[in-house]
Amino acid sequence: SFNAIFSKSDSSAYIVISNSTLIVPLEGVIDTNEEIGKLNLKKKNETSELINLQNKLNNPQFIAKAPKNIIEQFKMQSKEIKSSIEKIDQIINTIK
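Request: output the structure for the sequence above.
Response:
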């Protein structure tokens, strides 16, 4: 059995797995402001892509003319992008 005691500081990330907490010190390892900027840019790009997909999926003319497999593909992409945006938000909140 391995037991270690660490305290979470403002410059640490932590992950809870089952009944264990993994603490990763980030100070000196990454520039949190730079990383948050990169993540916000990625989130902005993914949000734009999501809006484009949703506009197509909400367009009755597109739905009437598009092949069913394309519509399903766009729906899956939309779900994947939403999930990715949620993960980006979680990462940003972890490293703030």
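The first helix runs from residue 32 to 57.
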